[in-house]
Write a structure and sequence with these properties.
CATH architecture of the largest domain: Alpha-Beta Complex
Distance between the termini: 56 Å
Strand content: 15-25%
Structural class: alpha/beta
CATH class of the largest domain: Alpha Beta
Oligomer: single chain
Radius of gyration: 19 Å
Largest sheet: 9 strands, mixed
Low-confidence stretches: none
Number of strands: 9
Shape: globular
CATH topology of the largest domain: Spore Coat Polysaccharide Biosynthesis Protein SpsA, Chain A
Number of domains: 2
CATH superfamily of the largest domain: Spore Coat Polysaccharide Biosynthesis Protein SpsA, Chain A
Length: about 300
């Protein structure tokens, strides 16, 4: 007998049917069956409804948006579409590991006050092969030492703005605690960090585990890759950290404000990208990143 669903996998979808097929298979392969899954289709690519229907599984649902919502709007629709306690905004080009639901629900049970719980992720390429990511390796080194780790108050905010180590698509949001709070419009890359820090400033708790139960795909066609190359990703990170620093100072969290203003990991990331460009003899991209590093980090 199928248990009542505990968690909704909401999949905001724009394009990429082969990846979507893979992620839906990973949902179906979960070791427990108390879930439902809804694909929130922006309507750009044909065949999405047929793919979902071909699964012949009532736990899967396909919804086409009446109008184009954009990334933040579709993420918020994912939160709004769930009638379960927990909802994961599953990226359409990633995949779950088979024990994701076990890991996340166990953590949610262990931290019943947490507004959000997260796990670690393997980094994979276009073909699904695990790859090394320097940025993610650095962020893992900056995780709080406890297992599970817990973020709360000024120390939690300070840790999170030092290095945004919460892998956004692994997060399960606890809707009864989250309430009406949603992602802020206007962002493309940092809406998760903005919401998480806002929740910490509201007095909420966020918990996570070092267990890997998710596969996060990094590939050249992704929005993250494009916005890293054109620097818009870093521009957003600078802007959101400045905003967080201002709100932290208003709250009296002066240590967290100083860390946010320093933007150390963002600076390191831009510098590493510039060095990689220079090593590959990509002179113009390297110079563009160096100029940003020298003049674009204070807005």
């Amino acid at each position: 007998m199928t248990a009542a669903p505990r968690l909704t996998f909401a999949i905001p979808f724009l394009r990429g049917l082969p990846y979507l097929r893979e992620v839906l298979a990973s949902v179906r392969a979960q070791q427990r069956d108390d879930w439902r899954c809804v694909v929130l289709d922006e309507g750009e690519e044909r065949g999405v409804g047929e793919l979902v229907a071909s699964l012949a599984d009532a736990r899967f649902e396909h919804r086409t948006n009446e109008r184009r919502l954009g990334i933040v709007g579709n993420w918020n629709r994912g939160l709004d579409s769930a009638a379960t306690e927990l909802v994961t905004l599953l990226h359409a080009d990633d995949r779950l590991l088979p024990d994701y639901l076990d890991v996340i629900t166990a953590l949610a049970d262990a931290r019943p006050r947490a507004v959000a719980v997260a796990c670690d992720a393997a980094i994979v390429d276009e073909a699904g092969r695990e790859r090394f990511s320097l940025a993610d390796a650095v962020k893992r080194r900056l995780l709080p030492p406890a297992e599970p780790w817990v973020l709360a108050g000024e120390p939690g905010l300070r840790a999170l703005v030092r290095a945004d180590f919460v892998m956004c698509p692994t997060v399960a949001w606890r809707l009864p605690v989250l309430g009406a709070r949603r992602f802020a419009e206007g962002w493309k890359q940092v809406q998760d960090l903005e919401l998480l820090t806002r929740l910490l400033l509201d007095g909420e708790e966020i918990a996570g585990t070092r267990r890997r139960a998710y596969a996060y795909r990094r590939h050249a066609e992704s929005a993250t890759a494009r916005q890293t190359e054109d620097l818009s990703r870093f521009e957003e990170e600078v802007a959101v950290l400045d905003g967080i620093a201002a709100r932290a100072r208003e709250r009296g969290y002066h240590g967290a404000a100083r860390v946010a203003e320093a933007k150390t990991v963002v600076r390191l990331h831009v510098a590493v990208r510039a060095l990689q460009d220079a090593a590959a003899l990509r002179g113009r991209p390297a110079l563009r990143k160096l100029r940003f590093l020298l003049s674009g980090m204070s807005r």
